[in-house]
């Protein structure tokens, strides 16, 4: 069986390392090249000793032309604003690209420039970029050359809201999203805010009203609704390594019930292998999705306030990043969507 040749650009970070971990066990993949500007010349096992005996491969400096010659698809795990020229170079060479950064998620370059405080130098590619949330855009992903991988917070928030918006269950003017994330979502570079004594035994909101994932969430929800949707989104940092638990509250437009919500959500996600809509009265926990590509969703209707509550749990590094990237690759190359990803969460 012919295998897909893959490159991981920026293989030394948390999401890059998670990508390598998943690809190393994928039955239809050959990893052709791993790049790292910071650790070029080192072996991947020096950065991630967990890969000892699994993958023996050096990290090299990125050369776009060399990378393009050796791979069919490239995964870019590099910071926002830095991906644009690399993506453009790989696309010109005919390589399929799955980009982790925010550089191609937003359809309007002016919105990107407002929230990311940088010019968009490859705006011509935005029309070709497909937002890489398979539960909403699988058909477009299948034929895409450029997939813009969703952010981790938007993944959990959009999946928790999409069925309710599509089925016109909620008032679009009263959507509140609160998400709690493990510290790995802040990346590998230490900061005073993520220093162990600062986050252990602590919980705090951040990016209040200003988080860069807000326009991404609103863009995708507006496309579902067919009209502009604005949300109040507040992220929180919690003393955990991995995972995002999201709580959505919204007023309903008419009477419903928790059982009816479960039915609506299960119908919407029928055939989506990585969304698990829980039974009425059950709610998601991080420990059941940690290390996996699953999104667990729980639902409730509060008769007293006429509001719904939708809860989602994902692993920010897997369904929120690397696992979702593999899921997109599977669709792009006509593999079964679950290939290399059918494993449960790490519990306890």
UniProtKB/TrEMBL annotation:
<dbReference type="GO" id="GO:0005737">
    <property type="term" value="C:cytoplasm"/>
</dbReference>
<dbReference type="InterPro" id="IPR036291">
    <property type="entry name" value="NAD(P)-bd_dom_sf"/>
</dbReference>
<feature type="domain" description="Semialdehyde dehydrogenase NAD-binding">
    <location>
        <begin position="5"/>
        <end position="144"/>
    </location>
</feature>
<dbReference type="GO" id="GO:0051287">
    <property type="term" value="F:NAD binding"/>
</dbReference>
<feature type="active site">
    <location>
        <position position="152"/>
    </location>
</feature>
<dbReference type="GO" id="GO:0003942">
    <property type="term" value="F:N-acetyl-gamma-glutamyl-phosphate reductase activity"/>
</dbReference>
<dbReference type="InterPro" id="IPR023013">
    <property type="entry name" value="AGPR_AS"/>
</dbReference>
<keyword id="KW-0521">NADP</keyword>
<protein>
    <recommendedName>
        <fullName>N-acetyl-gamma-glutamyl-phosphate reductase</fullName>
        <ecNumber>1.2.1.38</ecNumber>
    </recommendedName>
</protein>
<keyword id="KW-0560">Oxidoreductase</keyword>
<dbReference type="InterPro" id="IPR000534">
    <property type="entry name" value="Semialdehyde_DH_NAD-bd"/>
</dbReference>
<dbReference type="Pfam" id="PF01118">
    <property type="entry name" value="Semialdhyde_dh"/>
</dbReference>
<dbReference type="InterPro" id="IPR058924">
    <property type="entry name" value="AGPR_dimerisation_dom"/>
</dbReference>
<dbReference type="InterPro" id="IPR000706">
    <property type="entry name" value="AGPR_type-1"/>
</dbReference>
<comment type="function">
    <text>Catalyzes the NADPH-dependent reduction of N-acetyl-5-glutamyl phosphate to yield N-acetyl-L-glutamate 5-semialdehyde.</text>
</comment>
<dbReference type="GO" id="GO:0006526">
    <property type="term" value="P:L-arginine biosynthetic process"/>
</dbReference>
<dbReference type="Pfam" id="PF22698">
    <property type="entry name" value="Semialdhyde_dhC_1"/>
</dbReference>
<comment type="similarity">
    <text>Belongs to the NAGSA dehydrogenase family. Type 1 subfamily.</text>
</comment>
<keyword id="KW-0963">Cytoplasm</keyword>
<comment type="pathway">
    <text>Amino-acid biosynthesis; L-arginine biosynthesis; N(2)-acetyl-L-ornithine from L-glutamate: step 3/4.</text>
</comment>
<keyword id="KW-0055">Arginine biosynthesis</keyword>
<dbReference type="InterPro" id="IPR050085">
    <property type="entry name" value="AGPR"/>
</dbReference>
<keyword id="KW-0028">Amino-acid biosynthesis</keyword>
<dbReference type="GO" id="GO:0070401">
    <property type="term" value="F:NADP+ binding"/>
</dbReference>
